[in-house]
């Protein structure tokens, strides 16, 4: 396994890999956990070589967010990736990714609006810009992303379609089911911000979501199910709710009633220093 930090060695290493097969890209911000390793294992089923990018992307963090606090642990991450058969780690410096004078922004409208797009203005521009660059840098045949970041996956698929990204095109973007702790909490690098007490309370998020889904599926009014979800989170130790919404799973249209299409319940809520997100399927009518 090789690790490179700047563009020329990356291009050389990728060219060498492409001589002997296909390439899958797994973009990450590091601080790896079982969720990321699942993406890597899935990637190996889809391509001969796996490239993992590790880059805490300043463009997708707002002024008052956790860019500085976000865990950076390249040595530990490398030790986790080596036994997974990863060929290459692309860990660019900020200067390599955004050279002096960098002035381009990629903005996807529609699916990036509302939800995390409303709570984190500019976030999805930052994600789209860096992911577009990663695709051009690594030229992967496929790329893998977690369903935990459902809206992000929708934004990236839209961008890939709209910009005719053939490497990889929208269908070559593979979504991987959310990996959870045994109590149901979605794995996230930001879970590390929680104290033991907050971590125990955080299970309220998946539990209250499942209760809301069961209520919606048995025809409780969506607004009532979401109001109960908010009450459960606040009484279960969460400080505030950013959003809890029922959306069309594909185009993310806001729904105020159960529909006959695939739906998703999406939630973001704050506990301690962490802002946790999760989403789950809701069965069509
Ligand atoms: N629990 C998980 N299950 C499946 N995929 C995941 C999970 N957590 C993260 N991923 C995916 O891993 C990729 C990299 O995510 P990232 O490095 O931001 O990790 P993270 O745990 O989501 O961190 P944080 O939520 O704290 O930003 C993304 O495609 C993300 O959706
Ligand atoms: C896709 C990504 C690596 C872009 O910085 C990031 O948003 C993430 O880790 O989900
Ligand atoms: N996992 C999404 C990256 C972010 O929260 O900035």
Automatic annotation (TrEMBL):
CDD domains, A to Z: PanC (cd00560)
Reaction catalyzed: (R)-pantoate + beta-alanine + ATP = (R)-pantothenate + AMP + diphosphate + H(+)
Residues that bind (R)-pantoate: 60, 152
Pfam families, sorted: Pantoate_ligase
GO molecular function annotation: pantoate-beta-alanine ligase activity
Annotated active site: 36 (proton donor)
Residues annotated to bind beta-alanine: 60
Subcellular location per the Swiss-Prot or TrEMBL entry: Cytoplasm
Annotated positions binding ATP: 29-36, 146-149, 179, 187-190
Record keywords: ATP-binding, Cytoplasm, Ligase, Nucleotide-binding, Pantothenate biosynthesis
Transmembrane regions: none
Gene3D superfamilies listed in its UniProt record: HUPs (3.40.50.620), Pantoate-beta-alanine ligase, C-terminal domain (3.30.1300.10)
Enzyme Commission no: 6.3.2.1
Pathway(s) this gene product operates in, as recorded in its UniProt entry: Cofactor biosynthesis; (R)-pantothenate biosynthesis; (R)-pantothenate from (R)-pantoate and beta-alanine: step 1/1
InterPro entries: Cyt_trans-like, Pantoate_ligase, Pantoate_ligase_C, Rossmann-like_a/b/a_fold
Other noteworthy facts: The reaction proceeds by a bi uni uni bi ping pong mechanism.
Subunit field text: Homodimer.
Family of the protein in this entry: Belongs to the pantothenate synthetase family.
Record's function text: Catalyzes the condensation of pantoate with beta-alanine in an ATP-dependent reaction via a pantoyl-adenylate intermediate.
Name of the protein in question: Pantothenate synthetase
Gene, per the UniProt record: panC
